[in-house]
UniProtKB/TrEMBL annotation:
Identification of the protein by name: Cytochrome oxidase assembly
Membrane topology: Multi-pass membrane protein
Source organism (scientific name): Salinisphaera dokdonensis CL-ES53
Keywords carried by this UniProt record: Cell membrane, Disulfide bond, Heme biosynthesis, Iron, Membrane, Metal-binding, Oxidoreductase, Transmembrane, Transmembrane helix
Compartments where located: Membrane
UniProt pathway: Porphyrin-containing compound metabolism
Amino acid sequence: MSRFQLNLLTICLAFVVITLGAFVRLSDAGLGCPDWPGCYGHLDVPTAEADVAVANERFAHRPVEAPKAWKEMIHRYAAGGLGLLILAMALVSLKGSSSPDQQRVLPWVLVVLVIFQALLGMWTVTLLLKPLIVTAHLLGGMATFALLGWCLFREGALFSGYRTVRRAGLRMSAGAALVLLIGQIFLGAWTSTNYAAMACPDFPTCQTYWWPPTDFSAAFTLWHGLGINYEYGILDSIPRATIHWVHRLGAVAITLVLLALAAMLWRQARVDSRWRGLAMTLVAALGLQVSIGISVVVFHLPLAVAVAHNGGAALLLLTLMAINHAVWRARDHV
């Protein structure tokens, strides 16, 4: 298997892990296994009657619910497999090669990141779904996916050699758009981890208001202390609505920014037609994500649509990584 094929396999599994994580969180299975890394003291879910009885006695506060436990363990198995593939990428990077595009440092950065992700996964359970930890875990998964994308683009010499004019301005715009998207992903994660996805059940208004009552202090208090069970959230309705509303405002802002970036890329097609494909891909990914986000509210948080919203965010992030890669590897038009 070539480095490119290994990288491609790894990024595909990373996408699966992201969507599985969303599925676990949104189906309220985040504490399906109250311990870590096993499940009720087992490497799988206890099913034998005697094992279940022992587990229920040991974890009396959270009796075995096999369907939730299996969701959590399947996610852990997939995450473990992803960690092994990333380690394999790092080991392969040690092999000598004359290719200037071979990644030597980034795979090891990913190894460190995935170890930290494992710690966040443990703390997600031991700190009882603390929103700051769960949000960091989601962002870490997105960061892993994005960096795997960057490796893939470099190894396959993808999106390289584009010709451009006013490269500095395009670099600044693409970089700023990426930073804003990361901020919007944080807001989406904060909305989910605080169980605020349906705090505004109507659209485009929020609880019939164009600007609902808000409480920014409570909504964005990052640390509430230890020993609190955050399952199903602890915030009142107004802070939850505030979080949801800010996420919607962020969606409007990032939509305008990404449409402006797409227009800039389209204009670059005058010197290199390949920019047009990136512009169209960006608009398509953005349109898909906005449509899914609206559907989450209109159809009152169906699980499949909510999970797709997480997947759509990952694809939009990957698209922006591709654009930034193309911009930073572009040549000035002569």
